[in-house]
Amino acid sequence: MGRIEIHRPPGGWPEREQQVADYYGRRAAGHDRGRRRLLDGGDQELTFSDGNATVRVNSLGFLHYAVVALGTPNVTFMVALDTGSDLFWVPCDCVSCAPTSSGTNGFDFDFSIYSPNMSSTSQGIPCSSNLCERHRCSKDSSQCTYNVEYVSDDTSSTGVLIKDLLYLTTEDTSSKVVKTPIVFGCGMIQTGSFLDAAAPNGLFGLGMDKLSVPSTLSSSGITSNSFSMCFGRDGLGRINFGDNGSSDQEETPINTRNLHPTYNISLTGIGVRNISMEVGFSALVDSGTSFTYLADPAYSSLAKSFNSQVHDKPFTADSDIPFEYCYQISSNESMVQLPDISFTAKGGSHFPINDPIVLISNEKKRQFIYCLAVIKSTQLNIIGQNFLTGLRVVFDRDRMIVGWKKFDCYKVEDSNPLPVNPRNSSATPPSIAFSPSSYTPEATKGKGHNGTEASVLTPGAASSHSSLVNTLASTILLLLLLPLSII
Which of the residues 32, 43, 82, 234 is marked catalytic? Predict the structure, then answer.
């Protein structure tokens, strides 16, 4: 068995608000730019002008967020990074948007609102533009409008298409700013999860449509047609445009789909410790889905095999926890052993699952619980954000492959260390589920060796974390920022 030690970080868990505020503080104090080597061919790598760091915000859907700058003068936005959708949109001239003022949004800083009238470089996209072909025109004007509905219940964004400048920077020693005209959504009306659970300040679609930013950068000749995301085990990560990966990465082909292409890959097997199962299915690699979804036969093969190798007492989860296989850790137990999990991809590549569980505590009942963090689906197979943890994932749209490699996001090949020093870098927050009044996170994980081992806190340690309990598990865990049009 692989070993992962789970322990409480010194000084306790940082609150969600402080985590994001600290990130903004680091951004303001100095740009977080990794110095990466340029890969074969000399293609330059780019990232956002405010740095290539991304941060997972558990209270906002367990998604990774980054800071982007738009317009003239530029305005910054904290946007969710979503490989499962194409359109980049931000709140704009709002009719219905998430709260933006300090305190009302649950954080101690204000979110920005974009307005075309406040940017001297803003241009509307007319109906006659070929960029409007998948969208439509409003009855009252000739400007191209958009409406994207997502799988999460009643979740959508509606507005008009705008062209303006996105500020990027080169990932080399010169760090030159690159002002890139891109098309994005001026999101006037948001509904559902965008109002209270995720992406309150915008969604950055990284899909394969020609409107997505990676497609724009490639078609403009600014970068190669590839990008990477690194999902750190401590909740921090990296994003780089033009990154073609490395020769030692594992990879598998992207399944070709002419209508609404996605990062869909084929998997041929599932391994759970010493049990190998030949199970063929395709799955979408989607950073905009909080947790992994599997339909049968893949779900039952994985879940039942995992369950057969776990020796802790089964826990019957209530309706606030949508995971089927959960286990109770007794008060006198200090360690639990978990089986390693992996997928086999088309071509034989090995896809390791570094973060397969959710840790939960129930303060009232003084219980400790963990669950296999996979949700049973009736139709979709999605490798969600939690199963991407611990990997640098490369989306190479020229070669039509998805590549991955176990990676420390703070150590870059042939480079100096990145300037950000993560809080408690030896500890890793696991994915966390909790109900309105009962559950709170209690532990973090750090990479060890040869096994999956969890060390458990005493029940009395839970009392200091009640401020973290303000989000419904049923809302967070069922979050899919996946457009209905691609299903």
Answer: 82
**Start-end of H helices in 30-127:** none
State yes or no: is 82 an active-site residue: yes
CA distances from 243 to 36, 44, 51, 86, 230 (A): 9, 8, 15, 19, 11
Selection from 352, 289, 349, 229 nearest residue 487 by Cα: 289
pTM: 0.82
The CATH topology of domain 250-486 is Cathepsin D, subunit A; domain 1 (2.40.70)
Query: Domain map of the chain by residue range?
Result: 10-241, 250-486
Per the annotation, the verdict on 172 as an active-site residue is no
Q: Which of 286, 312, 320, 396 is catalytic?
A: 286
Residue-wise pLDDT tens for the chain (487 aa)? 544 444 333 333 334 445 554 554 454 343 343 334 333 334 689 999 998 999 998 888 889 999 999 999 999 999 999 999 999 999 999 999 998 875 555 555 678 999 999 999 999 999 888 888 766 776 666 889 999 998 887 899 999 999 999 999 998 777 889 999 999 999 999 999 899 888 999 999 999 999 999 999 999 999 999 999 999 988 999 999 999 999 999 999 999 877 889 999 999 999 999 899 999 999 999 999 989 999 999 999 999 999 999 988 898 877 778 899 999 887 666 677 889 999 999 999 999 999 899 887 766 666 788 899 999 998 889 999 999 999 999 999 999 999 999 998 876 543 333 233 333 322 233 444 332 223 333 222 333 333 444 333 323 332 222 222 223 233 334 567 777 765 5
Q: Determine whether domain 10-241 maps to CATH 3.40.50.300.
A: no
Name the nearest CA neighbour of 392 among 377, 408, 381.
Answer: 408
Cα separation of 312 and 369, whole Å?
10
